[in-house]
Queue: 3 jobs
Job 1
Amino acid sequence: MKIAVYGSGGREHALVSSFVSHGHQVTVFPGNPGIATMADISPGPFEEIEADLYVIGPEAPLVDGLADTLRARRKLVVGPGRDGAQLEGSKAWMKEILSSANIPTASFRTFTDPGAAVEYLNSYDGPYVIKTDGLAAGKGVLVTRDRDEAISDVTEKLSGKAFGLAGTTVVIEEAMEGHELSLLVLCDGSKGVALSPAQDFKRIYDDDKGPNTGGMGAFSPVPGVGEDLVSQILRDSVEPLIAEFRNRGIDYRGVLYAGLMLTINGPRIVEFNIRFGDPETQVVVPRIKNDLARILFEVASGEIRTRPEFISEAMVTVVLAADGYPLAPKSGAVITGAEAPLPDGVQVFHAGTRRSNSGELLVSGGRVLNVTAKGRDLKAARALAYRSLAAISFEKMQYRLDIALSACEQNDA
Ligand code: AMP
Ligand code: GLY
């Protein structure tokens, strides 16, 4: 099959690697130096690539209607149209649709007026959860116990300075507690089929300290999260959402990414995204035994018939991030060691990299590389990932040392 992939991150590198390993011919726009080693890179526009299947990686082009443009040309596309994409394009819209469908989630209020928002924050003792309404690359959320910090965050967001128009509405939510879980669900417009669960690490520093990022690492499978819990999440959160979409005339064909908190009252939705998670894809997709591209073709055609099957081995990915990420990432540093031959079971997925005129690999974005390793269990995968990343370096490289650590300790206990 000829497949066109839109995107340039670690998620797209992992998807392309899976497609290529099953013998598909892949063209990517805009791609990155890692993807360029295994697929054709197109100068764009994406709509002009001739392919049997179009896979759109990031949320922004989906929110902008790229899937609609392609479907108007009778192309088979993985990714919702502008209608379904509002789920990620507006947190206020997402919360509204979750309440109409009775899906378990944090209670919330929406504000556009700073005075009213501050008055609300003054009415209770945190923790405070404040979210920018529009797209903010995972960085528009503040969770804090400090009321003064919450008040200045809300005031800055509503001034439109922090995220421009995306920030002029905020959602203030009830704080939930528990372990987080990412469940990627393939959706063909009428049903959802879950992939193996993963866990992501959102904060920049160890022990979940520091600001939120797009994700600093991930692992799959997740100890303690078995088929029963996945079925419960599908039944209580995913199927009602798909039914609500159908009531509203939305034919959602693509990935529904459920971000959940496993609270003492059961799993509750933190958010839904409209695409594969990054870096969750890097640990979930390489664990799929059968041909993912074939299943995605069924997603785009409107009827999933093939069940994804998973290898029993575990995968861990550790993100190597640029100096200054997530607030002000610095680009330009020279990367060494990322293109050397790798041990068996290790892949380095590129994200924020570019090639200089003289052929050097340079840092060009916040999240730079994903060092991804497979092992017979999480402990072996984690050890191999950290051993392998020791060979890679660039100036002021940042990474977390505790990716999958507590899950390994839980397994040991
Ligand atoms: P989001 O962009 O909505 O996924 O939020 C980013 C991160 O903020 C989540 O992964 C959680 O770690 C945290 N978070 C979001 N909403 C809540 C909530 N209601 N209670 C506690 N933590 C939250
Ligand atoms: N890993 C979080 C996300 O993809 O949004």
Job 2
Amino acid sequence: MWGGRFAEGPSAIMREINASIPFDKALWRQDIVASKAHVAMLGAQGIVTPGDAQAIADGLDRVAAEYEANGVPEDWDLEDIHMTTESRLAELIGAAAGRLHTARSRNDQVATDFRLWVRDAIDQADAGLEALQKAVVSRAEEHADSIMPGFTHLQTAQPVTLGHHLMAYYEMVSRDRSRFADARARLNKCPLGSAALAGTGFPLDRKMTAEALGFEGPTANSLDAVSDRDFALDYLMAASQCALHLSRLAEEFIIWASQPFGFVVLPDSLSTGSSIMPQKKNPDAAELVRGHAGRITGCLTALMMTMKGLPLAYSKDMQDDKPPVFEAAGLLALSIAAMTGMVGDSDFRTDRMRAAAELGYATATDLADWLVREANIPFREAHHITGAVVRLAESRGVALDKLPLEDLKAIDERIDESVFPALSVEASVAARCSHGGTAPAEVRKRVAEARAALGME
Ligand code: ARG
């Protein structure tokens, strides 16, 4: 492609280090679409003849059909997807192919293709996350009344409902979706027409190409447009945050599926066995989602480091932008799908959850609250009295509501028998009816709002 300037061809090492076709062939659809938009504009502006524009567009369709049928050939001499496509176009239609690259550089071409690819990845992540939210909301509705222990420090804290616990992830995923939407809105400007770095003297209609490719408009500065990859970083940041959320959900399933907990039986379809221990059913999918969060955030760090300190405009370092984005997108899509299946198809053992909620003095706060409300005791003092009650119950090995009234009175005479109903786990969750609290009625409200937001009615 640049034979005019060079006396010798590249060494084998140069060819290998330079070739991006092994990975950027994933951009072939975007490359064809963007080239078709470019040549249609060149034709409309009279920069190439209508005949050549048509021949190029038809030729690009033929190249696309070949890629679709046989995959993209990997010839390192052609470096990347852009030169691979153009060279095949030349083989198919002859000299007219040479006019496609008028008023264009691979720099604005790759920036455009990559934006289109990332935009699709954002749309796919959003669709996957919507499906995950629907699964979460359905299970939360089913379990709005199912009582389980709520934890802090992974120690029994207060009873909550499984519905409330699941809806916490609905909220996290909502924010993840809004981060992807923000990334999409910032990304959606078209670099095509920025050429190598300085723009071009040809009379382009940049609005036309931007519109044809679904962009909001053309980018405003040619140097910026060919040399920033913040749109890819925005995507990776949103993906990383999302992966962190998914890893936490995965971790809950891993803990819940362990025998001492036994809160959930995972779907066989998302578990594996052991080659030596016949009884094992391992939560490998959840563990891999947890693990993938490390790789996805690694992809973010990789591209951040690639971009750090690069002067304007394009430098070849930036060719390394694509592998981490492609890798993260693949891992994220799998992680979302695995967690959607896990939420949707797991068998929640509500009997085990309920029994666990009875242990660990989960309603101690309810006793303290009762002392505040019914006996007008300041909360700090009520906390102290309750501590003494818990100590006594622990020494006897019984639950709070199994202590005889006289023993409670010995600790504080203001306690009477009306305390007992307040100490049940049902009363405890029903009492937590503040906005956003775990009371079943509150959970149902949130579920109804979520169903409406997701169009599930
Ligand atoms: N394969 C290159 C990349 O992905 C295309 C841009 C090449 N531009 C250049 N000035 N050599 O970054």
Job 3
Amino acid sequence: MKKINIALDGHAGGGKSTTAKILAKKLAYIYVDSGAMYRAITLFVIENDVDLNNTEAVENALRSIEIDFKLNEQNQHNDVFLNGKNVEDKIRKMEVTARVSEVSAIKEVREFLVKKQQEIGLKKGVVMDGRDIGTVVFPEAELKVFMTASIEARAQRRLMEMKAKGQEVNLEEIKQNLESRDHQDSTRKESPLRKAEDAIDIDTSDLTIEEQVEKILNLALQIIN
Ligand code: DC
């Protein structure tokens, strides 16, 4: 059967990763969380106190960063590894979330990750979610979806996710972080978040995860068949 690449873009907290994970499983495709890669670099920057205003320091840091995804046998999802260490939990913490937009606005960081992401996509059969997948990483993707949702819906979902992981956060803090990341991600100079011209819009504010997946799966199957 023909394999395609699926690009899922949209604002923070729009349910992209949950949707992408289930979709990939249903199609027996590889799921790649590109945001996790930006988060892993952000963790490295924090832990090693990298000076983001110093391009040489950023380039040196990137040379010593190895990012991989490995299957977590317990939940059957791919966890992100930074230099051989599983950092899946650490990269979801507020300290990382608060700085990831700043790190992902850096040209060298984007070039480094886009190259890796494009290599993963060469064999097709990839569902990748992020901000620039349909515009920069896979401009030729057979299916591009741009997911939107109201700020209220997104903040509520993020709150439930973080609470389920035992993290202490409040709704207002999450809302502020989402709004500030939306602003930074959409206004940065290097490949800002925007909808690819040929992407299909899906507003998920009033959709369940199952409904979201169903919609995109149907679109994918039409192309595959
Ligand atoms: O998807 P996420 O919320 O985990 O992504 C974290 C941050 O990484 C997001 O605020 C912006 C950045 N990002 C990006 O610039 N490009 C991508 N393709 C994915 C994420």
